[in-house]
Design goal:
single chain, 445 residues, alpha+beta, Jelly Rolls, Purple Acid Phosphatase, chain A, domain 2, 2 domains, 9-stranded antiparallel β-sheet, 7-stranded mixed β-sheet, 6 helices, 23 strands, Galactose-bd-like_sf, F5/8 type C domain-containing protein, Calcineurin-like_PHP, Metallo-depent_PP-like, signal
Length: 445
Amino acid sequence: MRLNIPAPPRLSRGRNLALLAVFALLAGLLLVWPGRAGAAADPLISRGKPATASSTETSSLAAKNAFDGDPATRWASAEGKDPQWIRVDLGATATISRVRLSWEAAYAKAYRVEVSQDGASWTPLAEEKAGNGGTDEWTGLSGKGRYLRVYGTARATSYGYSLYEAEVYGTVDDGPPPGGAFTVVAAGDIAAQCTASDSGCAHPKTAALAQRIDPKFYLTMGDNQYDDARIADYRAYYDKTWGAFKGKTHPVPGNHETYDPAGAFAGYKAYFGSVAYPQGKSYYSFDEGNWHFVALDSNSFDQSAQIDWLKADLAANRKQCVAAYWHHPLYSSGGHGNDPVSKPVWKILYGAKADLVLNGHDHHYERFAPQDPDGKATADGIVEVVGGMGGAEPYPIEQVQPNSQKRISGQYGVLKLEFTDSGYGWTYVGTDGQVKDTSPKYGCH
């Protein structure tokens, strides 16, 4: 049920004591009522959790503002469009008992509160058909899932939808602790030589989508800048879009980074600096949560220095889950096809029980079932994802490879990866904000 609690009336002096006593009694009864907001077994579980939205009016009105606990910040959707939604990832399956929504002047006349386990299939928890703004408090709910969203279907004003705070209360069930979950955005083959003034230019759109998702960090899978990856081109194109979050980006180079007339990687290294060379090499590793991430340079897989480093890095790893990313995929159904240069690296990763490999190079989206380095489907295999739709001209699907489960060409977008302490999954999100594909949920080896 939704509670609308009016302000108390102005009291005459002669009635103050009696009526205040009545209000005190009512307040005491409300606090012990099981469905009443504020009950002891009703903790806030959404504060500071990753949030996304169908749109944002400006970058300063991001989805995360509705879950930061600050009543002065807010999320606002694009103006004049229905429907719109805002979603929070609670980090693990939770039982939801209460939702409190604090609307700005641009409120929803009609909306649904929905819950989902996978972020794709949604179950209604509550519905408002005649909203009047202010604060809506839905209590006595009984929903179970990892994700909760507010789905606005009718605006009350000509503007958009705007929330100061969206608070979700309940209990987190058994599973990975909420603090261990995080979101990553990844893409390859990004900045063509065009700008937002060109309506056909895609990388400004993928950058805007990536920024709206607001992940823990970003990964790029090479060919970040076209055509010759010169520093002047990085500054003219990539920097104007994906450069907005360079400090949160962990890049790797592609073959186009080697074409620079100033020398292989000259522009790449000048632009990214220590972001791309944190360990002084074009390959490196880092940890987040229970995950070990390995960033590799597939232009030099034939050189022993990187192979020796990779073996030592994996031997020293103490994290349960391992993800690696580079440019050239071992398996691909696109124009470039399979690239055997990556097979020795796959063998090393497979021996270390790695879980996930991300690649670019072919300009399409594709996911594969778990497989071994020889292409045999196996439950303990590596999952490979090709995510080369960051902005460069799409390539068609040419020869479908064994174990390929889904292929999308021609629709630009990014990978939105969800990691927990014991597993992962992802969605492929198009620049229109719509989910184009949802992966299975995988556990770490």
